[in-house]
Amino acid sequence: MINWIKKHKLILSIFLLCLLGISFFMPIPYYVEKPGDASNLSKIVQIDKHPDRYNGKFMLTSVEIEPLTPVSYIYDKFIPYYSIESTNNLTDGQTNDEYNKVQNFYMLSSINSAIFNAYKKANKYVDSKYNGIYVLGMHDSSFSKKLHVGDTIISVDNKKFDNSEGYRNYIFSKKIGSNITIKFLHDNKVEQATAPTIKLPETNHSGIGIVLTDDFSVKTKIPVKVNPGDVGGPSGGLMFALQIYSQLTNQNIRHNMNIAGTGTISPNGSVGEIGGIDKKIIAAKNNGAKIFLAPYVKPTKDVLKIEPNHQTNYQLAKSTAKKYAPKMKVIPVTSFEDAISKLNSVK
């Protein structure tokens, strides 16, 4: 009888240990988004013979993404500025490899746009080259077995255009179901595929069923290197541009202050909104930032109609700072020029 009790106690103990192990260590299909780092951009940007000479720093803010276990899910659920997302929502159904490719491309694209804007504003030589259409994703595409996320389309029916709109308009002009031939770069090799166009959802246009963006590269005479490490995505564009411009011109546009911020940047200098700005405010505060540059894009009537309680990046940043970083000044910016102008007025 005693041996039977001991045996069952042992089994129960093993079961409880396994349950604890599962609860603490077994990943579940959810991720938490939380405040990441606010990195000193002078350590990330290197420009030949143009060092960063001034006190203070521009800071690249990031959101940290971690997989969850049952225990960490319950714990993180109660932290108000953490966000929990399903794996599918986070990656939009992409594989890890596809997701990482897209995030790395976004980062490279943001760096190129930042270099282009900063060099142009500083009156330094810079040239851009349009490479084609970068494939961000695919939806019911007739090319799905031939084209992959991360490929770049370089011609359609042997026609080349200067931007994605040119390619899009050409494909729109084709009869739905008619064959088109694309040439594309896959793993740096030129490949070719032919397939019929499809009817795009909710339109009468023909298409090839891909999510796309422009792929371009830049060339400068003054060498510049930007190494963001493991950070991906497009949201560092504005801050890269400010750091590069400051070093190129040797201007103390941050006035010896610690300035954090975020926002995409387009080749024409406009600043776009990003996700997770509430978390970036806290990351900036944790790393000593006194000023935070937040994108401001005025919502359209259509946006407000669909989302009456829509909050801009600036509004969310402002309310988050009021609660968690009341001494930090949040400044709305709409463009690269606007950011420089507002920094010059903050002394």
How would you describe this structure to a colleague?
The protein is an alpha+beta fold and 347 residues long. Helices cover 35% and strands 29% of the residues. The protein has a six-stranded mixed β-sheet, sandwiched between helices. A five-stranded antiparallel β-sheet has the order 8-7-6-5-11. Helix 7 crosses helix 9. The protein starts with a helix and ends with a helix. The mean pLDDT is 89.
Topology:
Elements: H1 2-25, E1 28-40, E2 45-47, E3 57-68, H2 70-76, E4 83-86, H3 87-91, H4 96-121, E5 126-138, E6 152-156, H5 164-172, E7 179-186, E8 189-196, E9 198-199, E10 206-207, E11 210-220, E12 224-226, H6 237-249, E13 258-261, E14 264-265, E15 271-272, H7 277-286, E16 291-295, H8 301-306, H9 313-324, E17 329-333, H10 336-345
Parallel strand pairs: 3-13, 13-16, 16-17
Antiparallel strand pairs: 1-3, 1-4, 2-12, 5-6, 5-11, 6-7, 7-8, 9-10, 14-15
Helix pairs in contact: 4-6, 7-9
Reading side by side through the largest sheet, how are the strands ordered? 4-1-3-13-16-17
Approximate strand percentage: 25-35%
- Apparent shape: globular
Mean pLDDT: 89
Helix run count: 10
Q: How far apart, in Å, are the first and last alpha carbons?
A: 82 Å
Instruction: Kindly state the number of beta strands.
Output: 17
Helix content: 25-40%
Q: What structural class do you assign from the helix and strand content? A: alpha+beta
Which H/E pattern describes the elements? HEEEHEHHEEHEEEEEEHEEEHEHHEH
Rg result:
24 Å
Low-confidence stretches: none
Quick one: biggest sheet? 6 strands, mixed
